[in-house]
Amino acid sequence: MDFRLSDNQVALADGIRSMVTGRLPLDHLRANEGAEMAIGAEDWRLLADTGVFALSLPEPEGVGLGLADAVVVFEELGRALVPGPLVGTYLAASAQLVEGAADGQAAVGVHGTGGGPILVEHLASLDALLVLSGSVGDSTARLIAPAPSATDGRRMAAPLCPFTPLWHLDSLPAGEPLPDLGGRLWRDGALLTAALQVGHAGSALDLAVAYAKERHQFGQPIGGFQAVKHICADMLVRYEVARAAVHAAACLVDQPGVAAHEAESTGRSPDDVVARAVLGAKVLADEAALVNARAGIQVHGGMGFTWEVPLHLHLKRARVLTTTFGTPAQLSLVLGAPPDPHPATGGIRHA
Amino acid sequence: MDLRYSAAEERFRDELRAWLVTTLPTLGAAPPADDWPARRAFDSRWQRLLFDAGYAGVDWPAEGGGRGASPVEQLIFKEECERAGAPYVGVNFVGLLHAGPTIIAEGTAAQKERYLPAILRGDDVWCQGFSEPDAGSDLASLRTRATRDGDEYVVTGSKIWTSHAEVADHCEMLVRTGEEGRRGITWLIVPMDSAGIEIRPLRTIAGSAEFAELFLDEVRVPVANRVGGENDGWRVTMVTLSFERGTAFVGDLLESMRLLDAVHSLARRLGLLDDAGLQRRLGHLTAAFDALWALTKRNVSEAAETGVPGIGGSVFKLSYSEQAQALSDLAMEVLDRGALCADPLLGPDGVELGNDEQLHTWFKSISLTIAAGTSQVQRNIVAERILGLPKVR
What we know:
Chain A is an alpha+beta fold and 351 residues long. Chain A has helices at residues 7-23, 26-29, 41-50, 67-79, 86-94, 182-214, 226-254, 256-266, 270-300, 311-322, 328-335; strands at 108-112, 119-121, 128-133, 140-144, 154-155, 166-168, 176-177, 216-217, 220-221.
């Protein structure tokens, strides 16, 4: 057992980070704030050429890696605020559902049939739309290809996130059912979304710590005050705990023997072990992203409330991602569902 | 990232599991919680069984007489012991987890020979005299003074939070031999039967007397009992911390996970899961404890490679202590008025509630954000040593 990132995973993260820093820096991405297309076609192909969508496709078409590698990559994408239908395109590419998804010729959105109005993200960019209903374990999937046209819906003039253009549709076409794929697509999609959230949580932490070191008030860096220091410490705890949860869930998917082993010693099914890990990871990652973005704004004081400081972009994106694949409230309700009947003995005697 | 255990690690687990299955039934029932002499006898018997089977000091290096197990094997050891219901490290936790490792790292050959085998065999019990009434989080301000008199130190002062003092043979004690602050502290082994030591039990909010205060009035301690140099005691103490391999809270964590299952079952039994709010809190705790188990594996893996658990220790403790409190508070709510006494009660279905044990767990949970570094001190450590924030106040 070695749960550290492997050398290859560290190199993968570094590679994505330097690619993004060099080619997709925030100033460049911010040129598309509020645009109908959150990311240009050329940048999208750059992501594809880097292997982002074909990571888990077997070679030679893809890179032949696992979900644990993909979450490492998606954490970096979240950290750098890279926009676009990343999760849907990855899912479509890895299940070979849409031609061109792996090499950046096609973009695929993902839409969950949860509560609230039908608001489809990035519709003008989409070649196809994956629709997932239900939750992990009982999810059904269908594919709408081609995607509805942007003119089939009404573009929202005031979306919460400047990088997430939204279209309101009255209804969605039925599309093609994807039998047997629902569970896998939901599971992988939820986990990659959680990985993006971990990236947002980590970036908010880095921004807060950097500012706390450089900003002086009362004759000292504000990071010297325990009231500020403790906010930052709690941000790190949230980030590390959520990150460990996401990584462990991805390993359970990639290494089925571990889930089987865990199932054996706890009397649950392997599928249940994986499902619980994925749900828990999404809950903690959502919360880490939302709470850390808020905490980062607080550490920045008035500057944190400005458009210029990118913390609001992390907060808004985290808010969007929280509503895909289930909110923490919905998912923790599933996690807390009554356990299988236990023999009625012992009360909470646990030793 | 690989969660799979190697064949050698699985073999270690299988052998341990088989040994626990055959050995635990021979141990007999645990004594009452407040019968300290009986608890010492029980824990010493368990330690002797571990010793005879080669599991004593599983986390000690081989040169100290321990098993020299890898951090991953230490994790497996604690996991299997907890799952099998084996006793915890018990009344000699100071000897096994702190004093022993300190002597391995810093003791003389004579000290190693005198003290280490006795700890591993279960013969000697140690207690700790570090904290003082006026030196808690600021330990380096301690004032218990040791004055050199020939071949002896003469020690006068007081210590607090000394666990199991009444049944201990030796005390690892920090004393002031020089200037104020960290550079005037010395590490001494004080025999607990020395003249001039008074032990006063300290009653906790749980009503128990696990802790004591020590009053030292001109206690004479041989200079040969000094570990490390005079005034070098702070460094000696810190060296021991490097023995931590990220497994310090494995037993507590797994116990909390079992408690969560039990609370979940009880809530269902009592028909309380109609309450979506309660159900969400249970679900959230499930996510949190699973994540802490993952973080434990991360820290242990880090320790296996680098020798120290990386950023893990303080991060883990901050999160775990608060989640354990949230869980224990929830258990109290589920018990409702059944949580108002520690006398065993039955639920409306005539089956026991387990309220007696839960009261103890609840009190213990309150100490988790205080003991071994308060959460406030832990946050300073995380902010300064990991995040690099400045040390001004």
